[in-house]
Amino acid sequence: MRQSAGPTLERTDEADTYYLNMGPQHPSMHGVLRLLLKLRGEEIVTCEPVIGYAHRAHEKMAENRNYIMFIPNTSRVDYLSGMIYNIAFCQAIEKLCSIEVPERAEVIRIIACELNRIQSHLLWFGTFLLDLGGITPFLYCFDDREEILDILDRVTGSRLTYAYGRFGGVTMDVDQDFLVRTLAFVKRIRSRFPMYEKLVGENVIFRERCEGVGVITPEVARQYGVSGPTLRASGIGYDVRRAEPYGGYDRFDFEIPTRTAGDCMARFEVRMAEMEQSCRIIEQAVAAMPEGPIGPKKLVQRLKPPEGMFYFAVESARGHFGQYILSDGSNTPLKLKMRTPSFSNLSAMETVLEGTMVADTIAIVGSIDIVMPEIDR
Amino acid sequence: MSPASATPVSLDGLLLESADADFAVTGFHRVHSASVERIGDVARAYDEGAYLLEMITCEDRREDLKAMRLVYTFNRFAGDLDRHVVTVDLSGEIPGAEAPSINGVYPAANWFEREIYDMYGVTFSGHPNLKRILLPDDADFHALLRDFGRMEDAES
């Protein structure tokens, strides 16, 4: 696929500025993102993110498949919070078609999604530190993360691209071993948080590179529709799980961690605090795990959605993931629009990066936790 | 959840139609439609009410409505949730369908409008950088138009 070559390292029309391409093959750049930077010395004059390298036309595919055929696509949109996307699509269709979900299936989904959220934050944590030059934390958190992948792999059969949800439930029931291992993991990760805090959070080099860097003000966040931990680090406690509860989240007791600084450090702290909240949700869910079926009483033979416009949002690991569905009453959507959080978060970078230094670019872009396949869809 | 009547946005005279929606069923609190000339004013009204632009998308409705339809959703992340959807019908001519850009009101619209241009061929007047965003720059088609037909066996 050809993208415009564009200027690489060229002089601009102004004598003292030049263009620099960062990505799509830059070793520190996340996935296939290209930042076209106009620089004066080391200062960024303008920044234009260039995206589309991982476009796979999921929305076009959705129009050519019936709803159930689209399930495997969902987790591939954002491979790091694949479980959340997969379950979110099922929940959207359940709401659209008024399909009831048994309580046990809801609780299993919540455990799976929260494990997925921790996994995604751990990966972000590791790669963010890697971007900043700290290799050791990466090894520790991948060790932790592997345990989650094993737990989910045992139940779902996949490590990343899950297709665990079905309309009205999940494919496989969980056993005692799953619950025991999940609780053991929660205990393990809790014992690691103080170490991470000591190793990273109190590390003077890390703090110097993060504090006051890449500040996103609440007003910029609103103008660009920034959501997720990036928004909560700017002082706005918006979380879809709390603002419009779905899938039984209203039954659980958890906090929405927020910070007011809006810089890279605040985003780091919010994500670390969120992992603890996910642990709390998992503990409550395991304790409250009811017996019963994991799928609908009567197999759904043919979906009969009502006609019209429909919107369903969930909180992915990166923020507000919305699905806009236009239905004509058939079992194939006329239109499925996926409003992905990183798309909006990244679009704010043109403003946030202006006037910062090239060396901070990696820290800032890394700190908003972007996943390119989710942006390009 | 705030009742829709408590909305602080003053949209008087800006809309063609306006109705309450059942949030529990559709996910929207209010459903509006506006004329293409007024969408800039509508966006400004939401901006003054401290709403954010959640998304813009487009629908190829040339078959049933003889139109391309833009879909804007506005919401609040700070304060009570209040999701409004505004639809705007454009001419069904591609190329030719055009709407004013609201990038000047909401910078978030920049990429959403580029994506709609990329995928549907709808142009936005006053957009500072209207070029393809996801497809290759030299693509000669707009991928989400219904020109390509629908897979026959999708209806199983």
Describe this structure in words.
With 377 residues, chain A is α+β, with helices and mostly antiparallel strands. Chain A has a single domain, classed as Cytochrome-c3 Hydrogenase, chain B. Chain A is built from 15 helices and 8 strands. Chain A has a 3-stranded antiparallel sheet. In chain A, helix 4 (103-131) runs antiparallel to helix 11. Chain A is globular. Chain B has 156 residues and is an alpha/beta fold. Chain B has 3 helices and 7 strands; from the N terminus they run E-H-E-H-E-E-E-E-H-E. Chain B has helices at residues 23-26, 39-48, 109-120, and strands spanning 17-20, 30-34, 52-61, 67-75, 84-91, 98-100, 123-125. In chain B, the strands form 2 sheets. In chain B, strands 1-2-5-4-3 form a 5-stranded mixed sheet, covered by helices on one side. Chain B starts with 16 loop residues before the first strand and ends in a 31-residue tail after the last strand. Classes of the chains: A alpha+beta (377), B alpha/beta (156). At the A-B interface, helix 1, helix 8, strand 6, strand 7 and strand 8 of A face strand 3 and helix 3 of B.
Give the structure's gist in a few sentences:
Chain A is an alpha+beta fold and 377 residues long. Chain A contains 15 helices and eight strands.
Lay out the secondary structure.
The complex is a heterodimer of chains A (377) and B (156).
Chain A: E1 18-22, E2 34-40, E3 43-50, H1 58-63, H2 71-77, H3 82-97, H4 103-131, H5 136-156, E4 165-166, E5 169-170, H6 176-201, H7 204-210, H8 218-224, H9 229-232, H10 240-243, H11 264-287, E6 308-316, E7 319-327, E8 335-339, H12 341-347, H13 349-352, H14 358-367, H15 372-376
Antiparallel strand pairs in A: 1-2, 2-3, 4-5, 6-7, 7-8
Chain B: E1 17-20, H1 23-26, E2 30-34, H2 39-48, E3 52-61, E4 67-75, E5 84-91, E6 98-100, H3 109-120, E7 123-125
Parallel strand pairs in B: 2-5, 6-7
Antiparallel strand pairs in B: 1-2, 3-4, 4-5
